Amino acid sequence: MMGGEIWVESEEGKGSKFHFTIQLEEGESKENIIPHSLSPLTVKPILVADDNSVTREVIARFLESYSFVVKTVKSGLEVIAELEKGEEEYQLLILDWHMPRLNGIETLLALKANPRIQTIPPVLLITAYPSPEIEEMANKNGVKAILTKPVTKSSLFNAIISIFNTNSHLYDSLQAYPSEELF
Fold first, then answer.
1. DSSP conformation class of 55
2. Nearest CA among 26, 67, 56, 78 for reference residue 126
3. What are 145's strand-pairing partners?
4. Cα 141–146–147 angle (5° rounding)?
5. Nearest to 46 by CA among 37, 35, 56
6. Rounded CA gap, 82 and 53, in Å?
7. Could you tell me the sign of the dihedral formed by the alpha carbons of 165, 155, 107, 130, in that order?
8. How far apart are CA 174 and CA 154, in angstroms?
9. Run of H or E residues at 107
10. What is the pLDDT along the chain (183 residues), one digit of tens a residue?
11. Can you say whether the dihedral through the CA atoms of 120, 152, 170, 65 is positive or negative?
């Protein structure tokens, strides 16, 4: 079998273990798999807000591996300050639901109520605490997608593609892209 072996170890009353080995050729690198047809999505930056520095770093690394430009902040208040400055036109906000002082939904509501902010990018909400209440609040306030932690590289990419509904045949082929990186 593909230059490998297969065998079973079984012990009555304890169960069985199935083993196999295969020999594979080294595959092509998937390091920068964002296709040229999606390059318009990589022009404007994505703003990521999460109070957990590890999560912020991982999400930024995932996005950068797909050639997205990323800026990170650690709170809803920093998101508001960043959008008030108006120096960047962000294509997407990725907000953690559970942040101190202002959670992701409260941040979005504060952005909408702020007369100094003219444009609010689409919002992707990330939560470790999925619930019907959070989903209802998110839908009611215009959140475009919700991701549940742990977030994988491919689930993040798929959520972004679904938000922008870009190149759906390509999106279908990328859903199978595996990623073991979790946070």
1. H
2. 56
3. 124
4. 160
5. 56
6. 18
7. positive
8. 8
9. helix 104-113
10. 567 889 999 999 988 998 888 887 777 655 555 555 456 777 899 999 999 999 999 999 999 988 899 999 999 999 999 999 999 999 999 999 999 999 999 999 999 999 999 899 999 999 998 899 999 999 999 999 999 998 999 999 889 988 987 444 433 433 333 444 444
11. positive
> Coil, strand, or helix at residue 51?
coil
**Which amino acid, 124?**
L
Of residues 46, 59, 50, 164, the one with CA closest to residue 107: 50
Alpha-carbon distance of 118 to 112, in angstroms, equals 9
Contacts 24+ apart (CB under 8 A), 5-13: none
pTM metric for this prediction: 0.72
DSSP secondary structure letter of residue 67: T
**The two three-digit tokens of residue 19, written as one number:** 């083993």
